[in-house]
């Protein structure tokens, strides 16, 4: 234990009943773990879906054993139909974006560590916090239910473009009950996320312990805070959009459906709506959502990298400034998803410029991370490797943004695998690398046991090389004009590209299999891992000033007092090479 | 471990860049008057960002390599000048790149989407539906018949919803399943959708444009080479999306006239 | 309330010696109400944007509302809601000054006015249903989208008014039994004024700009 102010306050008794302790718990640490568990479940479902899709793309006639058990109609004899491919694709995208990339880096780790990092006993509103999780969980159940309704999950993609998503069963399979469940699930998810965002902001502003000024908050806390502000405004737009979509589908309104549409030989009884309206509303949420997924991981990497580099993060104020700038700009760029959508072509230029401007704060963040590595005494633990891997994939994913931000190139690359490569690298892989780094880094604190470093390193190398094998070739496919969201390649020029798809599929299966190492490591270490000390990595922030795992009220009744920023690594003239945030000693600079 | 990381990053970076440089998979030939500007823009962006990519990954690798040095008594070093040079470099370098790309690129965009079609353009109406494209030529009278969604009947081939009984202009409209155009003559398309969103994408023309239900979307191009090219749908439109295609046939002017006459005769 | 929450709220209100002061110097609950209002304003903004976008994109928009009875009814509703904001203000002032009885009376008045607004509104809806208005139907022959937009926007607002009335009743009961304090009255007041403010956008956009002579 480190020296902290030992104000005697009475310790709150933790709940004793099983339900209060593990299910409907008000403890942010339990809720954080619940979110993590949900994300873990979701990511494995999402990954299996991607395997099924990849196998079908490379070998369309191969029967997949057991798939006919999941849907006898969608996959007769184990070979999926084109519509079932689209169903799985929609569910892959939706589950990954909402239940993994939004939940894991933000809701899971944010819930567990934001209160601890600012020295609070819990979130500002523990009951709201519990409700957020159970609301999100309900949304997940509703989404999964779409697999089991008669016509299967929707086929309209995670973007659910109207009118395909709005007119109902005439538009194709999965668009009756499945699409209803999708829209309801997302609306519920919005409510859960809004509740969570309110709680995160109030907690960060109001529950900081003595001395924890805003400028002394760790970067991860800053990132969660900025992300919460983005969520507060983004989900507030998706919620009414989903409600209007549900009205269009069930109450006969026509917000997103124009007149004169003929589907299944039937003139649709709708008039007066606008198709582009859905796209505007969706992307006004959708682009900030990208930053909801990536910012927490940026913050986590900025938090973890200095611990293993044993030197302070370069440019702490610039880092925070860039996060805020990215959050701010994220609201001005939604139109870059719509360059060829039939929107006024003048506005393409207007949306292109702020999109390109976002690359400036993103580049600064990347350069500062690289500059932090310079001259470091790097400790190559698993979390450190994932941080370095994050920098590499973030560069790779960011670079392709230069292409897609320009309308003149988007007119060729839009809706090709180039886009798939771009957002998987920059949003999915980079964000997940942050989650992996966070898991290996904070697991000892969460469960009191260390994870296996050997297995962790195997996991890192296989994943790092694997994701490059999966997603780098997709750039080449995109340049060759390979259209995305195709369940089979029947055009002459696409048939020529199938060998590349076979390579990608093999890489995806192998990389996916490597995640089993991670899952094994997680479960094995939970029960058999070596007991973790309180501060195994020699970090400075407040989570390392308490026991592993922390007691019910986080600090065992003590009130922490903070004297330092989170960045005091490689400090000379001290006993260790770092100074804890709770340490009152003076640091001589210079 | 640091050296291994650096080596892996170098290998990945070099292989990736090599495949880009070798053009192993690349854009197909360009057959439109607006295409060269797009291709030039693509090349410029590729070079500019390629340098950034190489520099970023290699510098990362070099720094990680250096940070793994086990020399005893080595002290940590702060990046020379701290954050300021990096922030400045990012703003200036990326800022310049953005400015250049925007100014040059907006011309390429403008040539396709912000320039009105030439007056002598050949007008063709396009109707997209689940899961086919249909093309309509105005016929000898040079006028298109009106569209009546309630008259659409795929069974009798009335894909556009024409009403020849009451609409004289519709009687000679020619409806076909391929887009056949004369070479070097501007073509002005009007895109309608019968049901859901679709998209018109011809790689060789370097254009892509969504069909928006409820709107008539204009698009124009001039093909400079004869041949047969694939038109594919790039906007998710339902279960047959992957199989929704048509052909663009570019012919010499006289051959095209012949073709049009033969179609009108039917 | 669990023990830990008691301790937390004690810490919040006083921001004792163990905490950094809140940057806005207000209770967490009040701060959160402000945050909720920001988020809810974005939601209303989105749905009003939807209405404006569709209206701008619809040629031959006809204005379906006549001055009498629609606009007159709307003006009465506006007057009722504005007055309820005034009574709410009275309740908050009285609660702050510790005059509990007076505050409860003002709260009662606000509840009555809020209910009156809801009743007037629902009555108008039923009149419109009788005329043939539906979410997908416009009996005046104008754009059908007006029915959808009108009922969605006013429905969303009405939902806010009704939940506000329920919240006011709960707060009034809690305040009278000393379960809740003056701060709760003030926080609910913020919400009530916000609902009022939203109406100030809904009324011109949906009613006045659709009035025909």
Fold and architecture overview:
The complex is a heterotrimer of chains A (590), B (266) and C (213). Chain A contains 17 helices and two strands. By secondary structure, chain A is an all-alpha fold. In chain A, strand 1 and strand 2 form a beta hairpin. The longest helix of chain A is centred in the middle third of the chain and has 35 residues, at 275-309. Chain B has two domains: 2-69 and 77-113; 122-265, Cupredoxins -  blue copper proteins (Immunoglobulin-like, Sandwich). In chain B, strand 1 (122-129) and strand 2 form a beta hairpin. In chain B, helix 1 (2-21) packs antiparallel against helix 2 (35-67) and helix 2 runs antiparallel to helix 3 (83-113). Chain C has a domain at 66-213: Cytochrome c oxidase, subunit III, four-helix bundle (Four Helix Bundle (Hemerythrin (Met), subunit A)), CATH 1.20.120. Chain C is elongated. Chains in contact: A-B, A-C. Chains A and B meet through helix 4, strand 1, helix 9, helix 11 and helix 12 of A and helix 1, helix 2, helix 3 and strand 7 of B.
List keywords for this structure.
heterotrimer; A: mainly alpha; Cytochrome C Oxidase, Chain A; two-stranded antiparallel sheet; about 60% helix; about 0% strand; disordered N terminus; B: about 270 residues; alpha+beta; 5-stranded mixed β-sheet; 3-stranded mixed β-sheet; about 40% helix
């Amino acid at each position: 234990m480190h020296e902290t102010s030992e104000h005697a306050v009475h310790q709150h008794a933790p709940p004793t009943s099983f339900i209060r302790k593990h299910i409907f718990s008000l403890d942010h640490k339990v809720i954080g773990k619940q979110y993590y568990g949900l994300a873990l479940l979701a990511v494995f479902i999402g990954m299996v879906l991607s395997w099924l899709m990849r196998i079908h793309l490379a070998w369309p006639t191969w029967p997949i054993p057991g798939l006919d058990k999941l849907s006898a109609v969608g996959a007769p004899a184990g070979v999926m139909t084109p519509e079932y491919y689209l169903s799985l694709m929609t569910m892959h995208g939706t589950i990954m974006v909402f239940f993994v990339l939004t939940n894991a880096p933000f809701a899971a780790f944010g819930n567990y560590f934001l209160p601890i990092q600012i020295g609070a006993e819990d979130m500002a509103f523990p009951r709201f916090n519990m409700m957020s999780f159970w609301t999100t969980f309900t949304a997940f159940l509703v989404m999964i239910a779409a697999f089991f309704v008669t016509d299967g999950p929707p086929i309209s993609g995670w973007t659910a473009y109207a009118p395909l998503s709005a007119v109902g069963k005439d538009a194709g399979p999965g668009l009756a009950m499945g699409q209803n469940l999708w829209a309801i699930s997302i609306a519920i998810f919005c409510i859960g996320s809004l509740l969570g965002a309110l709680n995160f902001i109030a907690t960060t502003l109001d529950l900081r312990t003595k001395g924890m000024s805003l400028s002394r908050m760790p970067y991860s806390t800053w990132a969660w805070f900025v992300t919460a502000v983005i969520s507060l405004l983004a989900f507030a737009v998706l919620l009414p959009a989903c409600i209007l979509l549900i009205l269009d589908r069930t109450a006969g309104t026509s917000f997103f459906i124009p007149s004169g549409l003929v589907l299944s030989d039937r003139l649709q009884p709708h008039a007066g709506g606008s198709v582009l309206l859905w796209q505007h509303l969706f992307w006004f949420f959708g682009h900030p959502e990208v930053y909801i997924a990536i910012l927490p991981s940026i913050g986590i990497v900025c938090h973890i990298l200095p611990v293993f580099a044993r030197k302070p993060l370069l440019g702490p104020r610039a880092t925070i400034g860039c996060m805020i700038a990215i959050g701010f700009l994220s609201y001005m760029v939604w139109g870059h998803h719509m360059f060829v959508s039939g929107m006024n072509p003048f506005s393409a230029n207007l949306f292109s410029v702020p999109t390109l401007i976002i690359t400036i704060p993103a580049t600064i963040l990347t350069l500062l991370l690289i500059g932090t590595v310079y001259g470091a005494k790097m400790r190559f633990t698993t979390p450190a490797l994932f941080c370095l891997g994050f920098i590499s994939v973030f560069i790779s994913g960011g670079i392709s943004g230069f292409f897609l931000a320009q309308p003149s190139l988007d007119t060729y690359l839009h809706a090709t695998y180039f886009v798939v490569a771009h957002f998987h690298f920059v949003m999915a892989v980079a964000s997940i690398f942050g989650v992996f780094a966070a898991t290996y880094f904070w697991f000892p604190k969460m469960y009191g046991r260390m994870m296996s470093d050997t297995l962790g390193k195997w996991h890192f190398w296989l994943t790092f090389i694997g994701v490059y094998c999966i997603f780098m070739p997709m750039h080449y496919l995109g340049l060759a004009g390979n259209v995305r969201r195709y369940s089979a390649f029947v055009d002459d020029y696409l048939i020529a590209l199938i060998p590349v798809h076979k390579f990608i599929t093999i890489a995806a299966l192998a990389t996916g299999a490597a995640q089993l190492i991670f899952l094994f490591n997680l479960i094995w270490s939970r029960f058999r891992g070596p007991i973790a000390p309180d501060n195994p990595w020699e970090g400075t922030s407040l989570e390392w000033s308490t026991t592993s795992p922390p007691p019910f009220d986080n600090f065992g009744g003590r009130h922490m007092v903070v004297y330092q920023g989170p960045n005091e690594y490689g400090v000379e003239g001290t006993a260790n090479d770092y100074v804890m945030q709770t340490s009152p000693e003076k640091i001589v600079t210079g | 471990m640091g050296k291994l990381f650096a080596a892996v990053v170098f290998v990945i970076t070099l292989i990736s860049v090599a495949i880009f440089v070798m053009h192993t998979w690349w854009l197909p030939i360009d057959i439109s008057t607006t295409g060269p500007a797009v291709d030039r823009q693509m090349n410029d962006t590729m070079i500019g960002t390629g340098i950034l990519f190489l520099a970023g990954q290699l510098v990362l690798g070099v720094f990680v390599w250096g940070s793994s040095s086990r020399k005893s008594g080595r002290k940590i070093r702060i990046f020379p000048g701290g954050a300021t040079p990096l922030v400045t470099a990012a703003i200036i370098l990326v800022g310049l790149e953005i400015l250049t790309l925007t100014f040059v690129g907006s011309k390429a965009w403008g040539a396709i989407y912000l320039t009105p079609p030439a007056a002598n353009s050949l007008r063709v109406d396009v109707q997209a539906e689940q899961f086919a494209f249909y093309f309509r030529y105005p016929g000898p009278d040079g006028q298109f018949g009106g569209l009546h969604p309630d008259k659409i009947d795929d069974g009798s081939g009335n894909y556009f919803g024409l009403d020849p009984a009451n609409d004289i202009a519709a009687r000679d409209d020619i409806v076909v399943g391929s887009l056949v155009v004369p070479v070097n003559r501007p073509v002005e398309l009007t895109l309608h959708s019968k049901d859901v969103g679709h998209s018109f994408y011809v790689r060789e023309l370097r254009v892509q444009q969504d069909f928006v239900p409820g709107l008539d979307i204009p698009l124009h191009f001039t093909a400079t080479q004869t041949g047969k090219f694939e038109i594919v749908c790039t906007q998710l439109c339902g279960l047959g999306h992957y199989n929704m295609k048509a052909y663009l046939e570019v012919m010499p002017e006289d051959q095209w006239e012949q073709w049009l006459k033969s179609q009108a005769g039917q | 309330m669990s023990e830990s929450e008691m301790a937390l709220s004690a810490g919040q209100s006083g921001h004792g010696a163990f905490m950094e002061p809140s940057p806005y110097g207000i209770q967490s609950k009040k701060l959160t109400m402000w945050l909720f209002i920001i988020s809810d304003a974005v939601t209303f903004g989105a749905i009003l944007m939807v209405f404006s976008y569709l209206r701008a994109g619809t040629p031959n928009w006809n204005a379906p509302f006549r001055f009498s009875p629609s606009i007159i009814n709307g003006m009465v509703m506006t007057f009722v809601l504005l007055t309820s904001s005034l009574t709410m203000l009275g309740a908050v002032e009285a609660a702050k000054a510790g005059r509990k009885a007076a505050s409860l009376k003002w709260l009662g008045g606000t509840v009555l006015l809020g209910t009156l607004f809801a009743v007037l509104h629902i009555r108008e809806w039923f009149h419109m249903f009788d005329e043939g208005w539906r979410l997908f139907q416009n009996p005046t022959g104008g754009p059908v989208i007006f029915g959808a937009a009108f009922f969605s926007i006013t429905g969303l607002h009405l939902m806010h008014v009704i939940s506000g009335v329920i919240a006011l009743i709960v707060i009034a009961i809690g305040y009278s039994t000393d379960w809740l304090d003056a701060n709760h009255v003030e926080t609910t007041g913020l919400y009530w004024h916000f609902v009022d403010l939203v109406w100030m956008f809904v009324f011109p956009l949906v009613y006045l700009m659709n009035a025909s002579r």
